[in-house]
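Data availability (excerpt). The following record was deposited with the supplementary files.
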Amino acid sequence: MDVHAAVSERTGSAPGRVNLIGEHTDYNGGFALPLAIPARTTARVRARDDGVVAAESTAPGTEPARFAVDSSPGDVTGWAAYVAGVFWALRDAGHDVPGADVRVDSTVPSGAGLSSSHALECAVAVTLNDLHGLGLDRTTLALLVQRAENHYVGAPTGAMDQMASLYGQDGHVILFDARAMTAEPVPCDLAGAGLSLVVVDTRVHHEHTGGGYGARRATCEAAAALLGVKTLREVQDELVKDVLAQLEDDVMVRRVRHVLTENARVLDTVALLRAGRPGEIGPLLTASHTSMRDDYEITVAEVDVAVEAALTAGALGARMTGGGFGGSVIALTAAADEARVGDAVRAAFDQHGYAPPSVFTVRPAAGAGIEESTQ
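Predicted structure:
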C-alpha cells in the first residue's frame, strides 16, 4: 500500500470572508481590509494510492467528480475545478501529493461575493498540507491557491481572499498588503462599540471568471505600464491628480482613481480602528461604494438599491463587498438599528420587484485550520 494511504483522513476548514474595505486593490499591489466570517467550508480528505481524486460536495446541484491527480488546466471544469486546481498547484510546485477522496461541505453562500471558492480551495489546501506533512506556511499556501485560481480555474484574482481565509482572527480584521504579502491583524470590536455589520446577499450571482473582472485588471496593468511602474501601488504616494494627468483615456483615468483613493480609504479605516473609533468608518465605506459604482463601474442595480436603502434607514455606512457585478452589500449600523436596516432593504427589493435578499450579520472570525485528525 502507498505510504500516504496508510495515513488516516484529515478534516480541515476555511472561512469565507467579508471585505470591510479595499476592493480591486490587491492585484494592484495595494491594501485591503478583509475579515474572516463564521461561515466555513469543510474538506474531509483521505489519501488513495491509485492516482485518482474522487470529489463530492453536499451543495445542491453539484455532481461527484473523478479525475486524475495529475490533471492539467482545462481537464476539470465546474465546482470540482477548484479542488483539482489545488492538487495541480501543489504538484506543480514539486509536492508529491497523491490522489484522494475529498468530501466538501459548506455554509458559505455561493456566488454572494463572500469568497466561497477561496474558502473551498483553502480548506483543501490546509488539509492536504497537514495530511501529508508538507510544512507549508500560510502565505505559501495562499500563493499556491492564487495560482490554482488564476491558472487552473481561469479567474484572474489577487491574493486578498486567500490571505483573509488563512490568516483570519477572532475580533480582528486583517490589513493585507499585497506588495509585501503580509497580513496584519487589526482589532475590530464592533459589538463592544454597540455596532453591527449587516450583510445583504442580493442573490445576484457573480463569478470572477467573467470578462468584467479581467478587463478591469488589464486596464490597471496597462495604466501601470504607461506610468512606468510595475503596479499602481508604486504611485500611491503621489498626488492623485498628477498621476491621472499622465493618462489620456477617460476609462483608464477612472479605474486608476478608484484604486488610488481606495487604498487611501483602507489606511484611513485602519487608523480609526486602531484609535478605537469604529463608529466613524461609515463615511469611508460609503465613499468606497460610490467609487466602485462611478469610477470602477462594478455594481449592479440590486447592489445600489441595497446600499441606498440601508443608508436611508440609518446605516452609518454601506458598500458593495467582493469583486462586483452582483454579490453582497455590507452595512455598518448601530446594533439597535440592525433590524430596521434589514427590513428597509427587503422592502426596497420588494418595491423594485427583485427576489428577496438574504440578510444576516457577521463578526470577525478565526481563519483556516484542521478540525480533526484521526489515526
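Summary of structural features: The domain at 3-186+365-373 is CATH 3.30.230.10 (Ribosomal Protein S5; domain 2).
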